[in-house]
Amino acid sequence: MSAAAPPGAPAIEVVDATVHYGDVLALDGVSLSVEPGRICGLLGTNGSGKSTLFKAILGLVRTDRGRVRLLGLEGAAARRRGLVGYVPQAEQVDWDFPVSVRDVVMMGRYGHMGPRRRPRAADREAVERALERTDLAGLAGRRIGALSGGQRKRAFVARALAQGPDVLLLDEPFAGVDQGSEATITALLRRLRGEGRTLLLSTHDLARVPELCDEAVLLQRRVVARGAPEEVLRPETVLEAFGVPVRGEGERWSS
Ligand SMILES: Nc1ncnc2c1ncn2[C@@H]1O[C@H](COP(=O)(O)OP(=O)(O)OP(=O)(O)O)[C@@H](O)[C@H]1O
């Protein structure tokens, strides 16, 4: 791996991050850190600031206050060096555009190519490997718009993976995904952790958190709770953050 973090440094470190969109306070003094080789679940209702936190970590939105480090670097620098992969919640894609799944995954290699974006053998190999790992090798030549929701999600996970990142940020990787894709993604995330990569993922699916995540952060513009999943998911904490009692296993939060 191309780990750039100074020894002992967290893979992801956010200290007192505050973000406004105009008058809207989206993040209010958020701090968290994730050690290398861990999966951290980011929980919160709609509008609680999860996507904004991802963007702040990546340097895609400006923080008014606070500090963000990815592997000891500023988010934008870590992105430029291909150290962090990002799977956004929704892709701004024209699904009618005639681009294949393989082409989409190759986009993850752009940072490794020169300005003319000519793929080399290493780029092709990384793409094929990412397609295999996401169980998409058989669909690689298909138009991206012809895939199901779950398959599309896997294609964007593959694109992030093709970069060979040490840190992966996944915004709702299970949303709109069928059971088969859900199982493929879950198994893959566990293997990535086993390889020492660090994952921060947001999800509404509470049942998934204890089984997949080493730790969790409950966000409501500010951090309401952080720690082991079973600590964060205590009934009183959930009630405070969501205004509803903990629901049955497998049920999803929404607001
Ligand atoms: N570009 C923007 N301009 C203005 N306000 C924004 C913008 N993006 C997000 N917001 C606001 O910031 C707050 C946090 O939004 P954010 O998308 O980060 O929440 P979220 O937890 O990811 O929500 P969801 O679960 O619905 O995806 C919300 O009040 C939202 O309306």
UniProtKB/TrEMBL annotation:
The record ties this protein, via SUPFAM superfamilies, to: P-loop containing nucleoside triphosphate hydrolases (SSF52540)
Residues of the ABC transporter domain: 12-246
Q: What is this protein called?
A: Manganese transport system ATP-binding protein
Q: What is the lineage of its organism?
A: Bacteria, Bacillati, Actinomycetota, Actinomycetes, Streptosporangiales
GO MF: ATP binding; ATP hydrolysis activity
Q: Would you identify the family this protein belongs to, as annotated?
A: Belongs to the ABC transporter superfamily.
What the entry lists under InterPro entries is as follows: AAA+_ATPase, ABC_transporter-like_ATP-bd, ABC_transporter-like_CS, Metal_Ion_Import_ABC, P-loop_NTPase
Q: Which residues form a coiled coil?
A: none
Fetch the CDD domains from UniProt.
Answer: ABC_Metallic_Cations
Highest taxon of the lineage: Bacteria
